[in-house]
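Quick one: structure tokens for this chain, please?
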Amino acid sequence: MDVVYLDYAATTPAAKEVIDTMIQYFAGVYGNPSSTHALGNEARQALEEARATIARYIGARRDEVFFTSGGSEANNTALKGIAFANRHRGEHIIVSSIEHHSILEACLFLEEQGFRVTYLPVDRHAWVSPNDVEKAITDKTILISVMHANNEVGTIEPITEIGRIAKEKEVYFHTDAVQTLGHIPVDVNDLSTDLLSASAHKLYGPKGVGLLYVRRGVKISPLIHGGDQEGDLRAGTENVAGIVGFAKAAEVAEREYDKEARELVRLREMLTDGLIGIGGVHLNGHPDYRLSGNVNVTIDGADGEDLLLDLRLEGICASNGSACNSVKTRPSHVLVAMGLSPTAARSSLRFTMGRQTRESDVENLLDVMPSVVTRCRRNYNPYI
């Protein structure tokens, strides 16, 4: 059975150019970049060239890019690092209620440490209002964090407007760009952001490597202590192969962006129309300001887990939300924040497409979806 992969928001397959570039750094250029001998210097040069490539890609200076193990570490470093380094200025943090769990769980930790967190509401499209952000700011606010685009429903947030408000109020602004880097334009200056998180495996790079952009002059404490790697912000020997792969993935994404985005919008509309045509299917997320490959729907009278199981039997890979929160008993916090009932949230599916998605993949899904929905509706019990 051929597999139809429609879970690109969870992870993307590494591009061949990325793999080919990384291979030499496992055995050939294997030195520790902190070593001062020839092999160490070679690794250090590769590391700094990759840093420069990614910095250019996001409109940053080279010394403003710090590599991490992924988006979750970058998000934790941003929130905790700003909080503890700036506690003398205030103890108030503002985030949206639909952030990734690496933001929300970090906020819960900070609340235990005495910080106060405001969780902003969203509208039915998962849109964060810049006016709500401005109203929430106090003289004790030290950080605002709003994701660039939501990982579950694909809504692209008004980050530029929020960033301008934060700048006017002299409050640090962080955005989680894990879902957007490589898929829509990301420039730290256009976004008016002080900190930005991203992850390589969301743009056809390797897993286990991410970045945190920190604007020059921003006061931040390290999350991981030890050596003086990454400008004293993140101790530990750098993942040179992964970082070089990250840079190559960014280069490929820059080259492929326009072509890929046009095709994904076409496939997204084809899939959306086909799913809604089944009946009792509703699109979640903003109808216009959304990621090109994201289709999140609620299917009335069917359980999301049952739908996923039937789709797996048909060889189709999808999800019912974030890959980091797939527990059936917990409905999506994003959908609930948008106003859906817990029951409706549990009846939702996320299909996300990418560079290798073809029209035939969408057709295969739409061919089996009516019968899958019929079977699941027949067996549906909302009280289980």
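The chain has eleven helices and twelve strands.
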